[in-house]
Q: What sequence folds into this?
């Protein structure tokens, strides 16, 4: 039991260090393509791999850790006005990150004893990214519903009659789609050999 706990702690430490590097080293975890808009992030891949390997409870805690780092970045080194306005809100920073960490563990655990285990890795990756994107869009539309102009001004030239949630989908949805495809491809490539190594350790 102690050996298993030590192994899990060591894995968690490695992934936490990787997430910190992705968070604070420019263009590693947050790749800025369009300067005015939030960056495409590779961090959901790390979160998805960890949650898939370690299970839903550990994934939830790791998602919380991601949310905290996201909140810190929003206050200390925001890369654009949209990120500053969105992620200085603790709910928008934390809730999507926590859920994004929790769901891959649930999916992988549910499919691990079936012949579709590897398909579960693909789904885990896609769901992690989509959960983050969808929850950010939904929570932002709720928090800015009474003053959408303060945000839409930075998202592009949209008609004042365009619903905020539609603007957010158009402005942030492409990032989310790119992240989901990337994560769905990469997660099974990483998780499959890591699972074998962990079983032998």
A:
């Amino acid at each position: 039991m102690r050996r298993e706990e030590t192994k899990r702690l060591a894995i968690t430490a490695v992934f936490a260090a990787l997430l910190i590097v992705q968070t604070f080293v420019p263009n590693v975890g947050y790749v800025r393509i369009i300067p005015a808009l939030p960056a495409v992030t590779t961090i959901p891949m790390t979160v998805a791999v960890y949650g898939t390997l370690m299970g839903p409870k550990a994934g939830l805690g790791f998602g919380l850790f991601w949310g905290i780092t996201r909140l810190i970045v929003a206050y200390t080194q925001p890369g654009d006005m949209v990120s500053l306005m969105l992620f200085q809100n603790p709910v928008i920073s934390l809730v999507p990150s926590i859920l994004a960490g929790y769901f891959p563990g649930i999916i992988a655990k549910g499919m691990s004893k079936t012949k579709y285990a590897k398909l579960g890795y693909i789904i885990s990756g896609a769901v992690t990214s989509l959960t983050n994107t969808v929850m950010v869009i939904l929570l932002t539309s709720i928090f800015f519903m009474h003053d959408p102009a303060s945000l839409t001004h930075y998202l592009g030239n949209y008609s004042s009659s365009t619903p905020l949630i539609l603007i957010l989908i158009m402005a942030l949805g492409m990032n989310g789609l790119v992240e989901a495809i990337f994560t769905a491809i990469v997660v099974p490539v990483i998780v499959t050999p890591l699972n074998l190594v962990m079983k032998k350790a």
Observations:
- The CA atoms of residues 133 and 156 lie 19 Å apart.
